[in-house]
Every structure is written in C-alpha cells, then in structure tokens.
Amino acid sequence: MPESYAEAQGWHYRRMHEAGQERAVRSLREDLERQEEEWQRQRERQAMLNSMSAEERKLFLALERLQRYRLGLFGASLFCCAFGLIFFYVAGNVGAAVTWLLVHSPSLSSSPSSSFRSLRVLLGCSSFFKMESGKAETQMECRLGGLNSKRLSAKDISEYISHRDSFGLGWLLLQNIRLCEDSFPFTILDLSDFSLSNGKLDFLLSTTTAPETLKLGPRVCTEDFFPAVLTFLQRLKGSEEEEEEEEASGGDGRRLKSLIAAKCELREVSALFSSLPPSLERLDLKGNNFRLAAMEAFSARWLPVLMSVDLSDNPLGPLGVRALAEGLYTPLQSLRLARVGAKKEGVKGLAEALKEKRVSSLQTLDLAENQMGPEGFEDLVDALCTAGAVPEMRNLNLKRNNLIKFDEVTGRGVAGYAPLSKLLTTDRLTALEELDLSENALFEEELGVPGAPKRVCASSIAQNGRFPKLRVLNLCGNSISSRETASLLTALQQQDAPRLEELGLSSGGGRPRAFVTEGRKMEKRRGERKSWSEEDEPGIHAFADALNSGCLSQLTQLTMVKRDDLSPESAIPLFRALSDRTAPQLRTLNVEVQEASSEESCQETMKAIIAAVRQGGLRHVENFTLDLEEFCAVSAHISLLFFALGSRVGPGSRLRKLDLRWDCMTDSDGQSLVGLAQILGAGGMPCLEDLSVVFQKEGAKGAEAFGRVLSTGRVPSLRKMYLDWPMSPVMSSFCEGLRVGNCPPELKMELHIHGNDGEREEGDVLVRLTETIRTGHMKCLQILRSFGVLFTSESAAGLGQAMADENAGMVNLEEVAFATCRSLSTEETAESFWRGLGRGSAGLRALRKVLAYYYADTAPAPLEHHFLSPRPLAAVVARGKVPSLSEIKVQVGVGDLEGVAALSACLWWFSPPSLTSLDVSFGPPAKTFEEETVYFRPDPLQQQQQQEEEEEEEAPAVEVQTFSRALPDFSRSLTRLEHLRLSNIQRPEAEFRSLCHGIQMARLASLRQLTLDHVCIMHEEAAGWLSAALNADTVPRLTVLKILKAALTDRKLKRLTDGWIRRPPPPLKELDLSLNRLTDEGALALGAFLALKRLPALLRVAIGENQCRMPRRWEDALKKLAGRLPEIVFCWSDD
C-alpha cells in the first residue's frame, strides 16, 4: 500500500498506463468496426445508385464531389442558403434539393442511406413549391396538401434548427415559410433542445417570423443566450402597430400568442415581462426561480389580453403572490400557483383581488400545496363566495394545504371547519366543474359522535343543486368515514345532484410503487376481522346503490384504495353493480380490497370481480389496478380473471395499463400465470402497453409459459413491465421461458426480486437468473432490485460478469440495487458485483447507478445507503465499461492512499462526463447523532482539549489532502456534478484547508448541493477558508448548503458570513446548520446577516439541534426578522 503522496501518484500513473493499453486494444477493435461500417456504407451506396434514375444518379454524384470543397459549417450554411434561395427561383425543385444537400452534406459521408431518404423526402416536398411568372413579380406558394403528405411539420423544422447538421435546412425552410405564410400554419418554434452557439441563435431569431407559440429550453435561457431571446421578443413587441396595419389591409396579422419557458432556471429577469408583446395570451413559466422582484415587474400590466398564467413551482413567497395579485385583471381565465409558498399572507392578497372583482373572468385557480392553513382558507372562501367575484369558476384545486388545524394535545380539529362548511354550501360557484380537496384531513373528525366539530356533511356538495356542473370530485386523503361516504353517495342519487365523471374517495391517497412493500415479511393474520355487516360498512353498499340508480353512469375514473370499509364482503355488491354496465364510460379503475375474514368471502369476491369483467361491465376500461394482497386468493380465480380480461366481451381490446397484485395460498398450483400467458399469447390484450404483476406466493406452473410469451414477441404493444416476484422456483421457470427467444427491444422491464434473508436456499435460482442474463435473453431489463436476497461473493461476481458479457446485450440496464438486513453482506455483494463487472468482456453503456442498502432485522424499517470501496469501481470505470455512471458512493479508510488513488483514477476516466452525484466518506462510517449527543453537548473548552489529545495520539493522515490536491484535475470529469457530499473529516486542519482549496480550484459550475457531514471546522480561520471556497465564481449554481455536525460555533459562523459580505455568495436557497454548537448569539448574528439580503434567493434556514435555547428575546428578534424577511422559513429541526 502506498505510504506517501509520491507513491500514490506512481500507483495512479501505473493504473493509467494499464488502462491505456486496454484502451489501445479497444481502439483497434473500434477501428475494425469502423472499417466494417465503411464497407457496409459502400454497399448501401452502390445499392442506392442502382435504384436511382439516371437524373438522380447524376445529381447524387455531383453533390458528393461538391462536399469536398465545402466551407466551415456556419459559413457553408449561409452561403448555401443564399445560393439556394436564388437557385430556387431559377431551377425550381432541383435547386431546393441541391441547397439542402449542400447544407446537409456532413451526413452524406456518415449515413448515405439516411441522406438519400431525406433527399427523396425533400424532392417530394419540393413539389409543393411552384413558381408562377408574371410581368411584375414572381410569386411562390406552398401547397399544404403536399406538405402534410410528407409529414413535415413545425415540430420537424424546430428539430432541424436545433442541431448542427441540419441547421441550414431548418433556416431555409423558415425563410420559405415567410414567403408563403398563408398556406403553412407555423404554430410553434421549439428551442427546448437547441444545442448550437448563441451566435446562431441570434441569427436565427433575427430572421424568423413570429410563431404562434415560442417554447424555450434551459440552454437558451442562460446568460449567454437569453439576450437574443429578449431582443426577438422586443422586436415582436415593436412590430405590433405594423401588424395591425397589415391586418387592416388584409394581412394575416400573425402574432405571438403563447410563451413556454418551463423549468428553465430563470431568475429575476425583470426585462422579460416588459419585453413581451401585448398580443400574448398564454404564459407558462412553471419550475423557475421567480420571486418578488419578478412579480413586481409582472404587475405593471404589460399584457392586456393575457388569459392563462402558470407560475407553479416558483419560490414566489407570500410577498411575491401579493405582488402578482396586484397585477391581475379581467381577461385572465387560468391562474396556476401550485407550490409557490403563498401561505396565508399570499392567499389573503389574492383573495382581496378576487373580492374586488378584478378577475371576474377567472375559470381555473390552482393553489395546491401552499400551506395556506385555516386562516388563508377562510380568506379565500370569503372571496370565492362573494357575489360576482368569480362567476365562471370551473376548476378549483386546494390539494394539501393544511386547511384544518388540530390541537396538539387532544388531536381534535379546532379551526377550519367554518370556511369548509361555507364552501360546500355556497351557491356562488354554479359553474364549478372540478374540485380537488384531497389530502387535507377535512373529514377526519366523524360527525354524530360526542365532541364532533360544527361542520356540514360531505353530502352538502351534492345537495340543493349547488354544483350542477361538477364533473370531477377528489376527496382522497381526507379520512372520510364509511357513514359519511354513504351520505354523499345517497345525495348523488338526487335529481338535482351533479353527474360526476371522476370520483376519488381513497382514505390515504394513491398507493405509490414502493421498493419495499410494508409488512412483506409478516404473515397474514387470519380470523381477526369481525364479521361484516351493512350497518358497520355502509359506504361501499351505498356506492353500489348509486351505481344501480344510474346517477354514476357518466363515471370515467374511480379511485378507492386504502379504505378500511372496502372488505371482500362489501366489494361483492360493488362489483355486481359494475357487472350490470352501470358505468359504461369507465376508463380508469383503481381498487384495493382489504383483508378477508374467511376463505369463502375471498372466493365470493373473486367470482363477483370475474363476473363484472365477463359481463362487459368494464369493457371500456383502459387503466385497471386491482390490489388483492391483503387476502389470499386462489390461483385458479386469478387465472379466470385474466381469461375474462382477454375475452372479446372484456376490456382486453382497450386495456392499456394493467396492475394486478395478489397473494395466493401457500399450496398454490400456479394457475394464475398460466391464464395470463395464454391470454397474452393469443392476442387477448392487443393494446396493452404497461403491465405490473406482483405476488408473494405462487406456484412455478405458468411462469415458464409467461416468459415464453414475452421472449417470442407475442405482445408487440407492450412497452413497460414491472415484476415483483419471490426468489423461488417461479423465477427459475420464468428464466427458462425467456431463454426460448429474445424479448423485443422496445420492451423495458423493472424486476424486483425478494428473498427471506437466507431462510431458504436461493443459489440455484441465482444461477438460473445469471445464465439467462449471460446468454442475452433478458436484454429488456432496465432496473434490477433485490431485497432480502443473500448473494455469495461468487454469485454476485457472476451476476456482474454476466451483465457485462458481450452476448448479454444489456443496453437498457440503468440501475442495480442490493438490500439485506446484514450490513457486511450488502457491502460484499456490491463490491463483488463490481469486480465481476470488471471481468466482463463488454460493459453496461446505460448503467447509471449501483445502490447498496441495509436495514434493521425488524422490518419494516427505512433503508440506509452503504458506502463501498473505490477499488473495484475504479477498475471498471478506467476501462470505459460504464460511461453513463451518474452516482458514486465510496468510503476511503484512514491512511488508505491506495483507495484515494483508486478514487482518483475513477474520477479521471469519466469521459464523457456523466457523474452527477459524488459521496465520499473518509474513515469509518460516522455514528448517528443520537450516539454522539455527548460529543456535541459538553463544554466547548473541554471538547477542544479532547480533540487536541486525540490528534496527538494519531499520526497525521493525508488521504484527504491527496484527494483535495487532485480535485482540480478532475474538473473536466465533474462538469455535470450536481450533488457533492463529504463526510468524516475530523483530523488536522491542514486537511480541511486543502479540501477548501480543492473545491475553490475545481470550480464546479454545475454543483447544486454541497453537504459537509462530520467535517470538523476546528478554528475561525477554517470558516474563512470555507467562505472563500464557496462564492458566486467557484460554485455559481449552488442552491443547497448543509453543514452538519461540524462543531460550528457562533464565531465560526460569523467568520463564514463575513466572507460572504466581502465576496458575492452563491445563490443559496437552503442553508442547513443543524447539529452544531450555535447558541442564541449565533442565531441572532445569522439573522442580522440575512437582513443584509446578501442571499436574496434564500428560502429556508434550518438551525435545529443546536444549543439555541429560544429565550424570549430570541423569539422577539425572530418575529422582527420575519417582518423584514417574510420569504425565509426558519426550521428548528432537520425535517
């Protein structure tokens, strides 16, 4: 093992030399492949020449000679476009083809067949360009029919101008469109994938007419490109008067109507709103970084005919929403402000605008996830219920807003019920069509019991004709009781009740697809459920009555999951009602049936479900999710269900997504998969695109047939498949079926395999799975996750080697994950997998990450990431076998210079750069905060003395210095790095200084989050080093900074903030200083720094688990500070 920095460098260079030899061999192999490709291109070229006419052959050969003298790409494009415009008028079709091939000539040498196909298309398209000569001028028209026959659209043109090889062609087509605007509807100019220089963008926009829709992307919204966009918008704005004159004289008056700049990282661009043309009707700016200043610019009312605004996922804050509300006026019809941090203050400002009737034309209002609370809810409801405020309101979304306040001691609701009752009983929203009140715990307090809150029942929505046009009602996640559900469904049967199309009544919201199914290891408890009666569970029975009454005949979507009253007994009348075709328009059905009290009830429930499908009650369903995991079904019944789904009278001809989960009895014979295989093989589901199959106990019979159907391509429509299966003979049989043929390349499979943490033998199954992958019969695999499967070192290495085999063809594999309850086993499995991957003859071109987890023996428990050694990883990366790897989590031991050299070699060979997340731990894994409570709580002087004694006992380690000194050399490989986490640096200050210097010199331009965990900042001067390393020049995109368990004191924090006063700080949005030694004085000093507004984008400050005692004076100071900085949230915990 190297004992010095020089020896580590020598080891590093030797590894580079070995990797260089391997690359030479690979380069020779690539040369042979390129030679073979060149021969293939020559054969294709000769075949094309033989298929051409004499005129086309002469043209093609002439163009091949012309491309030898072409200029630079941009100069050639300009020359050829100018030449083409002239030649087009003279020679017609041939001139257009010549111009295109000159501009597109780079692709002639790379792909002749593709080029000639494009030549054919353009020669055909040129037939709709005709010339008519007159005495005064030459006129050119565009034949729209010919254009559509060649399928050349505005989207195709946008794709042409976004790439280097086709920029000239796209620009030429745009110029032709300018001459024939009447016939070609230029609907959209899409620059979301624009990849050229800012000069080309400026040239393009300066010569382009106004499209109806302009779509921008992150690249064109950067500092270098966005001025060209602003100039283009200003030109459109200045030409409004001229366009009005053209429109008056008979012109088309084309103007920009929509601007889309979603998720473009736009910040306080005040010039944007003043540059927008007044003809704009739709503005989509969701997912950016707009705040108060931008909203103040927007409120100047630059857009008199604006009808739709989407500012969701912008950190507007309460003040930003209030400023926006001041600029609202009547033409506006749609306002979407989801997740903007409005809170009660912002909602109050918006409510004032509604009360003043300044937006009486508003039809859509989206305020989801804004934490408005009961106070904001009350202000908003008062505004909505004001006569004439929003008479045309159609869509109201108040999802997840904490509308009800609960007492922390008693747990009872104490506020929010009055505005809820007012909203549900108002007659001012008669035009409302969609109402989303999900995940607000509105009905958690049951009515009719002692201490019940004063509120109206949910049935008020359907009574007295209050909402006659209501089509969509989402009450998921509100814990609505079975009795109140029955009242609502009974009210829907009234004559003046609305006819719903979508209804959500899930108690806890939708069920996400989790990696670990809660309670998987636990056996189902039988006989604990009391016998069912209609009086105990009236909700589902009332739903069946509502279906039979015909009041839900227009229902298209139904979601009922995680409902305690949806037992097998109550599900029987529900599915019997569906079997009578009482919901003929149903397209989406999500149902989860709870635990059964007996096997007989399970059988009766399955019979009712099968009858509902067979009799055509679900014949129009396209998305079907049925969760039967809570009770054991008979595999024969599951098989019959598959047969019913694939029959002619069932929904098989329309079914696009099928998600079925069940748990068969222990002695299952496996008939369920037999039914699925036979139906798929017979073409019973011709439109199926997404299939999910989850079970915990199933016989092996049928798994082989299912695999055979997939491998022989009998389901050509299938694109996505999710399997969550046990590591049992079922998996072995499935692999045998896959080995019959090859899965189609369009199919992407996510495979979850789960074992019993070594309780049963799984070696034979692993061997079968590995062999199936090695022989190339599982090329469709995209994600592989194992849970509780104990791999040996040999089996894990064999799996990695099989995946990297040249015959495996794993071109789609993106993620591999291992999880066990034994930490050491997980580490050995992951490292053995990497070693096997290095021994493979090929690589995994699409692999992004390999994850290792471990969990406690008492499941369920949260999964924790595991650190790995960098040695096996470096050997794989240096050979170029994982060029798309995006996430690395490694551990370097104390004094482990060989590990540092391996990590350095790993980072050095990332070409092209793909790494987005890097997590490095120096030394053993850090203890949890609970284990180190004593470490952070004693007297600071005593703690410092203890640290000095420990440093004297330890020999100075240089692994951090070695890594830090090499960090600037990796800047080429880290150009896409977004997340960097460094932990366990507790030794001499020289290490921390070198680390800060390395970060400063590396200039990580893409870094968005930096976490320093257990990185001890020993002195005030060290805080100054960190401040110098983190500034707007070195980390220009850093938005999240977490300094955790770093022994940060008041004086060190002041030194850090003083550095940000002298130098421009990074654009932080979140600052987490939890688990340190900050006192009240430090918190006050931090507040004083924030008051200087040196961090204008800051939204959240976490200072929990420090030594702040929250005295009265600190609370008063916090309130005063909050008055000046209302957009910043101070959190006292890490949550």
Please describe what this structure looks like.
- With 1135 residues, the chain is an alpha/beta fold.
- Among the domains are: 135 residues, no CATH class; 186 residues, Ribonuclease Inhibitor (Leucine-rich repeat, LRR (right-handed beta-alpha superhelix), Alpha-Beta Horseshoe).
- Helix content is 41%, strand content 14%.
- The strands form four sheets. It has a 22-stranded mixed β-sheet.
- It is globular, with a radius of gyration of 33 Å.
Short synopsis of the structure:
By secondary structure, the chain is an alpha/beta fold. The protein contains 39 helices and 34 strands. It is globular and about 80 Å long.
SSE order and pairing:
Layout: H1 5-51, H2 54-66, H3 73-91, H4 93-103, H5 106-110, H6 112-125, E1 129-133, E2 138-142, H7 144-149, H8 154-161, H9 167-179, E3 188-191, H10 198-206, E4 213-216, H11 226-238, H12 240-248, E5 258-260, H13 270-275, E6 282-284, H14 292-298, E7 308-310, H15 317-326, E8 334-336, H16 343-355, E9 364-366, H17 373-384, E10 395-397, E11 405-406, E12 413-415, H18 417-425, E13 434-436, E14 472-474, H19 482-491, E15 502-504, H20 538-549, E16 557-560, H21 568-579, E17 588-592, H22 599-614, E18 623-633, H23 635-646, E19 657-664, H24 671-681, E20 690-695, H25 703-711, E21 720-726, H26 729-738, E22 748-754, H27 763-774, E23 781-787, H28 793-803, E24 815-820, H29 823-839, E25 849-854, E26 864-865, H30 870-878, E27 887-892, H31 897-908, E28 917-922, H32 933-936, H33 940-953, H34 959-966, E29 979-985, H35 989-1002, E30 1009-1015, H36 1020-1029, E31 1040-1044, H37 1050-1062, E32 1070-1072, H38 1080-1091, E33 1100-1102, H39 1112-1124, E34 1129-1131
Parallel strand pairs: 3-4, 4-5, 5-6, 6-7, 7-8, 8-9, 9-10, 10-13, 13-14, 14-15, 15-16, 16-17, 17-18, 18-19, 19-20, 20-21, 21-22, 22-23, 23-24, 24-25, 27-28, 28-29, 29-30, 30-31, 31-32, 32-33, 33-34
Antiparallel strand pairs: 1-2, 11-12, 25-26
Helix pairs in contact: 1-31, 3-4, 3-9, 4-6, 8-9, 10-11, 14-15, 15-16, 16-17, 17-18, 19-20, 20-21, 21-22, 22-23, 23-24, 24-25, 25-26, 26-27, 27-28, 28-29, 29-30, 30-31, 31-34, 34-35, 35-36, 36-37, 37-38, 38-39
